[in-house]
Structure formats: structure tokens, C-alpha cells
Write a structure and sequence with these properties.
Layout (H helix, E strand, L loop, with lengths): L1 H13 L14 E4 L5 H12 L3 E6 L6 H9 L3 E5 L5 H10 L7 E4 L5 H4 L9 H21 L1 H5 L5 E5 L15 H21 L5 E6 L2 E2 L15 H8 L3 E2 L3 H11 L8 E3 L4 E2 L2
Parallel strand pairs: 1-2, 1-4, 2-3, 4-5, 5-6, 6-9, 7-8
Antiparallel strand pairs: 9-10
Helix pairs in contact: 4-6, 6-8
The protein binds NADP nicotinamide-adenine-dinucleotide phosphate.
The site of NADP nicotinamide-adenine-dinucleotide phosphate has 28 residues, from helix 2 and helix 5.
């Protein structure tokens, strides 16, 4: 195995190929939710740059201008409309792609309340709690189930659920964003159990905490006063993950297998307590 690998590298070097630092799985097909902005947009860009076929879904494609620009740049990137909470739309998309093998189903699109308005106790708005749970938990499982056959028919067979460090019950230190935290803790359990259900199909359901990734490259700015307050604080606390964290997660998803479904993975490969 080692000899074959070394020979392959040697042949590639002799032929003048650039050998990248990370081992990459053969490009496949990825379906992303929430690809209009943030991490989802960055995943779409990085998967496309690696030669993957990208089915990039967005709630409102007409306003997703950066995603549209990516589709112009990368012919293998297709934009599809998808509100993850519209179960009929999810089912219709699954039917449209019936017979298409999807190597990686990246469950990324969710209500990230740290970005769109942090909810709080005192009292916690029950409607907002239900909305967050419906989007971040119920809808995620529905998509996973709707696309199970597509994933099972692929070579790589991965479902990657984007959780959050805030979903770790063990690590909870403050009461901020309880609905968001609860949604990610529930997502963890649901995906952990679903992983047990579908492993017989060869499908690996992976739970990954992306951290806050510097998708806007704020850390590269010379003048930190240009950085929005929340990100500035994260830079100061040294908890903002670099833009390269998206590529690290693609590598991590490539690497992880059914043997890893019992762990809560952080973007850098660290294992978090549940
Ligand atoms: N950034 C962080 O700090 C952080 C940390 C840990 C985990 N995460 C997780 O990583 C994932 C991406 O986060 P992010 O930072 O990229 O968040 P973001 O910038 O707020 O983007 C969220 C994405 O999800 C989409 N979305 C929200 N509700 C949707 C729905 N009902 N149907 C379809 N798409 C929907 C949004 O679409 P619209 O453009 O239409 O709103 C957007 O594309 C989330 O699961 C989040 O919980 C993020």
C-alpha cells in the first residue's frame, strides 16, 4: 500500500503534476444546503475548485449573487432552489435527482442565531424556539431521509451534518442562544442515531462542528477597525477559524468513515465532548 502510494507520487512528480499537501478523495458529487452565503457559499467554492460536481441549493437563488458568480465560473456547479423547511420542495428535489449518486450530502443550511439574532431566556419566545428546532433539527433529518438513496448509490456515501460547538452539553458555560444550542444538541443525537440506522447501507453520518470560519477573510485586513464587532472579538479571543477551515472540513469529511460516526468532530479534527 505504502509502496504503491510512494510510486504514484513519484510518477506524478516525474510527470510534472503538483502534489498537494492533503490527500484528496476523487472528486464526486456534493449537495449543499444553504449555499447562498457564509460557510455554504465557501463550501460550494472549495468543492467546485477541487473539481466536484456541486448541487448548491439556496432558499432564494435570485438574490444569491455570489453563488450565481460561482455558477458562471464553474460549469459543474448547479444552483437549485431549496427552503429546507419546505418538505414538499425537498421531496420534489429528491425526485428530480432520482438516479443521481450524491457522494456527500452536506447539511449546512440552518438558522445560525449568532448571525441572525441571538435568542435568550426571560422568557424564551416559544415560537422562535419551535422555528429554530424545526429548521435545525426536523428539516435536517427530512433531507437526510429524502436523499438517502442518492447517497447510498454513491462511492463515498457520506452525510455531513453541520452542528456547532454550542451544541456540546458538556462544554456549556453560559446561557447564550439556548434555542440554537438545543437545536444543535438535538441534531447531534438525531444524526448519531440515524448513523446507527443507515450504517448497514454503508452510509457514514458525520457530526461536525465548523466553528466560526473567517469566510470573509477579516483576519487578512490590516485595519482591524473595519471588521464587524462580533468577528473582531473572535479574532481577539483567537477563536475565529481561518478561511482554510472549509478546506480542512472537506478533507475531514473525505477521511472519516463509519468507524467515526460515534464521535463529535470539530473542523480541525479535534474530538469534542457530546
Ligand atoms: N458561523 C458560525 O459561527 C457557526 C459556528 C458553528 C456552526 N455553524 C453552523 O454552520 C452552518 C452554516 O453557518 P453560517 O455561519 O454559514 O451561517 P449563515 O451565514 O447565517 O448562513 C446560513 C445559511 O443557511 C441558510 N438557511 C437558513 N434557513 C434556511 C432555510 N429554511 N432553508 C434553506 N436555507 C436556509 C441561509 O440562507 P439565506 O441566505 O436564504 O438566509 C444561509 O445560506 C449552520 O448550520 C450553522 O449552525 C456556524
Amino acid at each position: 500500500m505504502t509502496i504503491t502510494f510512494q510510486l504514484t507520487i513519484g510518477v506524478m512528480l516525474a510527470l510534472g503534476f503538483a502534489v498537494t499537501a492533503h490527500a484528496q478523495t476523487k472528486p464526486g458529487t456534493v449537495l449543499l444546503t444553504g449555499a447562498s452565503q457564509g460557510h455554504g457559499l465557501a463550501f460550494a467554492e472549495d468543492y467546485a475548485a477541487r473539481g466536484w460536481r456541486v448541487i448548491a441549493t439556496a432558499r432564494t437563488p435570485s438574490t444569491a449573487t455570489e453563488l450565481q458568480a460561482l455558477a458562471k465560473k464553474y460549469p459543474k456547479l448547479t444552483i437549485e432552489e431549496l427552503d429546507v423547511t419546505d418538505f414538499k420542495q425537498v421531496d420534489a428535489l429528491a425526485a428530480k435527482y432520482k438516479g443521481t449518486a450524491i457522494d456527500v450530502l452536506n447539511l449546512n443550511g440552518a438558522i445560525n442565531s449568532f448571525r441572525v439574532g441571538v435568542e435568550a431566556f426571560g422568557p424564551l419566545d416559544p415560537e422562535r424556539l419551535n422555528e429554530i428546532l424545526n429548521t435545525n433539527v426536523t428539516a435536517q433529518l427530512h433531507i437526510a431521509e429524502a436523499f438517502l438513496e442518492h447517497v447510498a448509490a454513491s462511492e463515498q456515501k457520506k452525510i455531513a451534518a453541520m452542528s456547532a460547538v454550542g451544541g456540546s452539553i458538556t462544554n456549556t458555560r453560559n446561557p447564550t442562544a439556548p434555542a440554537y444550542r438545543a437545536s444543535k444538541a438535538a441534531l447531534n443525537m438525531l444524526m448519531r442515531a440515524y448513523g446507527e440506522q443507515v450504517k448497514v447501507r454503508g452510509v457514514a453520518v458525520l457530526v461536525i462542528a465548523p466553528g466560526t470560519v473567517d469566510v470573509y477573510n477579516y483576519m487578512a485586513l490590516a485595519d482591524i477597525s473595519q471588521v464587524p464587532e462580533r468577528y473582531r472579538r473572535q479574532i481577539e479571543l483567537k477563536v475565529l477559524a481561518p478561511r482554510s477551515a472549509i478546506g480542512s472540513m472537506i478533507d475531514l469529511i473525505d477521511k472519516l468513515t463509519i468507524a467515526d460516526i460515534d464521535k463529535f468532530h470539530q473542523w480541525d479534527g479535534k474530538i469534542l465532548p457530546w
